[in-house]
Amino acid sequence: MLKLYGGARSRASIVQWYLEELNIPYEFVLLDMATGEHQQPEYLAINPMGKVPAIVDGDFQLWESGAIILYLAEKYGNMPNSLAERSILNQWVLFANSTLATGLFVEASRDKETPKLLTPLNQMLTGQPYMLGQEFTVVDIAVGSMLAYATMMLPIDFSPYPAVVDYIKRIKERSAFQKTIGKR
């Protein structure tokens, strides 16, 4: 059975959300970050960086939330066949984990970056329920989690971006979201 390693209030909940969406059985291994369990040799053998999340799937080990959700999408048949279409999914997952997360969560640049990021997202989401159209994908796990976290943790006024607000509401209503990130 796949094992997901995480800590309280970590990006492991993003992976957990996707596992729930995919209905994949997994074991969640909660590491006590306060006592440094993630810095012990047993865990460093899985992720030498000592960060969470990480997964162990049989003999395969992987860390970084974006890499993990892309692996899950590939393994469980949710990736398109064409290289171009897969690259678009990869682009958005990388965007969420780097550009969007940094733009929203780094306080020093938040005021400047928020409109640059949310304005085009608002335009994209106008008239479509999910990031890439009508279908919920791994992109929605990546982008949706960052936007949902932002509404829960940051002093950002999302009201100028009504399509983004509607999207976040849709994401938060998903059963798998409520079982994972929504429990916070």
What does this structure look like?
- Helix 4 (83-105) packs parallel to helix 6 and helix 5 (107-125) packs across helix 7 (162-173).
- It is built from 8 helices and 4 strands.
- The chain is 55% helix and 10% strand.
- The chain has 2 domains: 2-75, Glutaredoxin, CATH 3.40.30; 83-183, Glutathione S-transferase Yfyf (Class Pi), Chain A, domain 2.
- It has 184 residues and is α+β, with helices and mostly antiparallel strands.
- The model has no long low-confidence stretch (mean pLDDT 96).
- Helix 1 links the parallel strand 1 and strand 2.
- 32% of the residues are buried.
- Strands 2-1-3-4 form a 4-stranded mixed sheet, covered by helices on one side.
Please give a quick description of this structure:
The chain has eight helices and four strands. It is of the alpha+beta class and 184 residues long.
Task: Provide the descriptors you would attach to this structure in a database record.
184 residues; alpha+beta; Glutaredoxin; Glutathione S-transferase Yfyf (Class Pi), Chain A, domain 2; four-stranded mixed β-sheet; 8 helices; globular
The largest sheet has its strands arranged as 2-1-3-4
- 3D shape: globular
- The share of residues in helices is 40-55%
Assembly context of the chains:
single chain
What percent of residues are in strands? 5-15%
Reported for the largest beta sheet, the result is: 4 strands, mixed
Q: How many helical stretches? A: 8
Say how many strands there are.
4
Q: What's the domain count? A: 2
Report the average pLDDT across residues.
Answer: 96
Low-confidence stretches: none
Order of helices and strands: EHEHEEHHHHHH
| Name of the CATH class of the largest domain | Mainly Alpha
Radius of gyration: 16 Å
Content-based structural category: alpha+beta
- Assign the CATH architecture of the largest domain: Up-down Bundle
Distance between the termini: 26 Å
Q: Which topology of the largest domain does CATH recognise?
A: Glutathione S-transferase Yfyf (Class Pi), Chain A, domain 2
